[in-house]
Amino acid sequence: MENSPLSETVIYNQGSPFREEELISKVIPQTTLYDTYVSKTILSPGIKGLRPHVHSTCTFVVESLELLDTDFSQVVKSNSMFSTNIDHNLELGSCNSEIDKALELVLLDMNEGERSEVILSATKREGKLRDQFILPVPCIKCVINLGKVTELPKHKKSSLPSNNYLLSILNASTEEKLEMALNDKSCGVDLFKNERYVDAFHRFALGVKILLTVDMQELTPSLQTLLSTLCSNMAECQLKENNPTMAVSLCAKALHHDPSNVKALYRQASASWALGDTDQADLLLQRLLQLDPNNLSAKRLNCEVQVKIKKYKDEYSKMMKRIFSS
To answer: The BDBT FKBP like N-terminal domain covers which part of the protein (predicted)?
Structure first.
């Protein structure tokens, strides 16, 4: 590709949901750093100042798509967002998968009418929540044309709209934060039902982060319950990914906000049982069955736990008899 006098390559890091628009560095045109999520080379700058923000709806076209890593071929093939030479409409902030979030990240820093060559990166997690700190690798190279950017109606905007996601959350009212968190919960549940446990986990986590910005004096019992539910759902995602240690920690957070959360008690008991902590599993199950005596899942797990406890007691009794009979 020939250098354009207007071309400029910028590098971003997706990082946490609160750093999605953070500009990491500007480098010489045509230079790409592959340890980041997005690099963008501006080919045509568009209308300066007319940029989308979270919850804007964008129209864009993808051109000249090139797959840089064959391990992502199925992901790209099954993602209609990367179909070339057709108009796509996307509400920013609605993406769930890692590669879609990388695309969303670059759109947030484009002007209306801008045309840029981008490289998107993602991590080779193989759908797992483990290995959180592995570096992303470049997987897609393409040209993006950003068309019309449509703003939300004023009554649906937060009090101080911004393309900085953190600011848009901090300046939202408690009612708006509740609405956003409920939406994240609903999206997470749908993703979980489709067995997209990694994406569901991050969607639930986003809801938690939103609620944690609510002033403590405004954290009503209903908000505490929602916060507990989201943490418990995150724990279930970890259990599905065979990460019981993380599940125990998340359930503890859930029970801190709502000690009577039966699902959190069951999930923490299941995680403790998986880790071989029989006594803790027993303690949690007895507490759960006091709250919900007819819980069938808890009863089944409790039977397994009691069998192991009885076996342990029998073995201990035999050992003590041998000691004192000799």
So the answer is: 36-149
